[in-house]
Amino acid sequence: MSEGTEQAAPAGERGVRIVVEYCEPCGFESTYLELANAVKEEYPDIEIESKLGGKGAFEIEINGQLVFSKLENGGFPYEKDLIEAIRRARNGEPLEKITNSRPPCVIL
Hints:
4-stranded mixed β-sheet; 3 helices; 4 strands; 28% helix
């Protein structure tokens, strides 16, 4: 028997949909693009979508559940924390809100 070249998704792995709502006039699009690129690098099959949000917003939902809010935390999420949340969602584990945040960049 010859070995197949197709790889099946690991058992129990689930589809993940991410929505990032951000304030475009605030200049947060570049932060969204950086995060989206990091996510796609780690998980090329992830569906990630952006939508314009209110003033100061940078909110991240995974499968409809809010996992990060700049309005609550005052900063942006660390990529490693978002990657971990995605890993948990793919494995069907409960999602926890990301509470660590890095301060927004300030140009003086």
